[in-house]
Amino acid sequence: MIAAVAAGHPATADAGLEILAAGGSAVDAAVAAALVSCAAETIMTGLLGGGHAIYWDTAARSARNLDFFVAVPGLGAPPHEPDVLRLAVPFGEEIVHYAVGPGTCGVPGVAAGLDALWRAHGRLPWARLVDPALRIARDGALLPPAHAACLAMLAPVFTMHEGAQLYSPAGSLLQAGDTVVQPALHNAFEAIANDGAATVYTGAIADALLALSNERGGLLTREDLASYEPRWAEPVELPYLGGRVLTRGGLSEVPGVFARLPRLAGLGAADRVVELTAAVAGRLDRAGHTTNVVTADSEGNVCVLTTTLGLGSGDWVPGYDLHLNSMLGEADLLRGPLVPGERMESMTSPLLAFDEGGRLALGGGAAGGTRIATALVGVVAGILDEGLEPEAAVGRPRFHAAGPVVNAEPGVDEGGLEELELLGWQVRRWAAPHHYFGGVSVVTPDGAAGDPRRDGAARVLA
After folding, report:
1. Per residue in 91-137, pLDDT tens?
2. H or E element: which one contains 399?
3. How many CB atoms lie within 10 A of CB 119?
């Protein structure tokens, strides 16, 4: 496996590469990159979100998952109705209904998860890993075109309260190429560097977060924060192409899709569209906002890490410019009653794939909510089954089935789309590639790729 980073923003990938070049492990690089994503990709993720990771220890020949997704809040408090705002937001070709506001904020897990990864598999000092994020927080971050397009769609949420000063500082929304400046975000990363992740749970950031939640009718309690812990677990293992894939279950559809997926090598373009649609069809769509990092070091260790805020609640913690997550407002994640202290479900699916000789062939993950399985399985199959290079597999036009409708980017084989219509599908042909179709990042022994739909980037250590 080459030493490389693939991520959702050039600054995120640069941070991972910087840490690899400084002698950091794959986990060091993933932690630093993820922290930078919380400063540079604030449309997609943040320190007050949640996530999942998978780590491959090449010396031990073993893998572990880490669950640091959000927990249901409300421990030690009488039940009460949270403050929730319902919005209809245009998302590409569709209107999507969201619930936001402080009452949708779950107990955050990102800071605790990154700390747990570092303590288990890190090599460099914690403060060194925070350095790149501190620089981005101080200087601001470039807003790439795909992130700017996402911001334009989500402006009703991102300019509700404190966000108006951050994303519309002169009275007009930031555009592609502008710099996103969040002046108080530097305070958050200084606290993280000096006091560690604990500041989010028992320290100064925790105090500010609880004050905001209490003021605006949220559900978070001090007990929620103090009792939060990341959880290590064994991966879900499934056979693929004579080898195996390691990932996670839960709401992730990836294991089921791989189980249904036929061989794609040798199929014509039209048949590939039909077969892949049949394997992945089945969910209604909502649009979460998520990002993914994949890192590999020169020793062959690999870390895949996916984080998300959901949409984001529209509330920022004063003095720190940290956006609250909105996970309790993500309808696709709600399965049964919400019990304080329990983990919420997630669709994130960081994975590792091994060839028939047991060699690590790919580390990958994806952003995109309900489109994660479609995007990630399509890319993995493209590389491992169809023999595509990582960039070609990630950049290939995508299609996704949502209920009775197949959404398709330009360039998807028209014969295959017409065959789907004959089979009873409605086909919606999109005018341009779009971040709706997910954001995949992958590292293989031969290369790495970030997703152009979300202005992703990849870096290889020379």
Report:
1. 655 566 678 888 899 999 999 999 999 999 999 999 999 999 999 99
2. strand 399-402
3. 13
Residue 374 to residue 238: CA distance in whole angstroms: 17
Q: What is the phi-psi region of residue 298: left when phi exceeds 0, alpha when psi lies from -120 to 50, beta otherwise?
A: alpha
CA distances from 344 to 177, 284, 310 (A): 36, 19, 12
Q: How far apart are CA 333 and CA 308, in angstroms?
A: 13
pLDDT in tens, 274-330: 988 888 775 444 445 788 899 999 999 999 999 999 889 999 999 999 999 998 887
Q: What is the pLDDT of residue 284?
A: 41
What pLDDT score was predicted for residue 335?
A: 64
- List the structure tokens of 419: 């065959």
State the Cα–Cα distance between residues 132 and 127, nearest whole angstrom. Answer: 10
Phi-psi region of 2 (alpha: psi -120 to 50; beta: other; left: phi over 0): beta
Q: What contacts 24+ positions apart, CB below 8 Å, involve 115-118?
A: 115/196, 115/197, 115/230, 116/66, 116/68, 116/230, 116/232, 117/27, 117/30, 117/31, 117/53, 117/55, 117/66, 117/303, 117/305, 118/27, 118/28, 118/31
Which residues, other chains included, contact 113 with Cβ-Cβ below 8 Å and sequence gap of 6+?
50, 51, 53, 66, 68, 230
Residue 84 phi, psi (nearest 5)? -130, 135
Q: Is the dihedral of CA 321, 149, 102, 332 positive or negative?
A: negative
Would you state the structure tokens that stand for residue 393, as one six-digit string? 């597999």
Short-list 255, 13, 230, CA closest to 142? 13
Cα–Cα distance measured from residue 436 to residue 150, given in angstroms and rounded to the nearest whole number:
9
Report the C-alpha gap between 204 and 202 in whole angstroms. 7
Cα separation, 440 vs 363, whole angstroms = 11
Sequence-distant (6+) residues with CB within 8 A of 409 are 397, 398, 399, 430, 432, 433, 434, 437
- 270 sits in which H/E element: helix 269-280
Q: From CA 15, how far away is CA 11, in angstroms rounded?
A: 6
Q: Which of 210, 153, 164, 436 is nearest to 324 (CA)?
A: 210
Q: Are 115 and 178 in contact (CB under 8 A)?
A: no
Predicted pLDDT at 333: 67
Question: DSSP per residue over 152-207, as a string?
Answer: HHTHHHHTSSTHHHHHSTTSS---TT-EE--TTHHHHHHHHHHH-GGGGTTSHHHH
Nearest CA among 140, 134, 189 for reference residue 169: 140
Residues 310 and 81 sit within 8 Å (Cβ to Cβ): no
Amino acid at 144: P
Nearest C-alpha neighbor of 221 from the set 328, 78, 125, 81: 78
Beta bridge partners of 293: 305
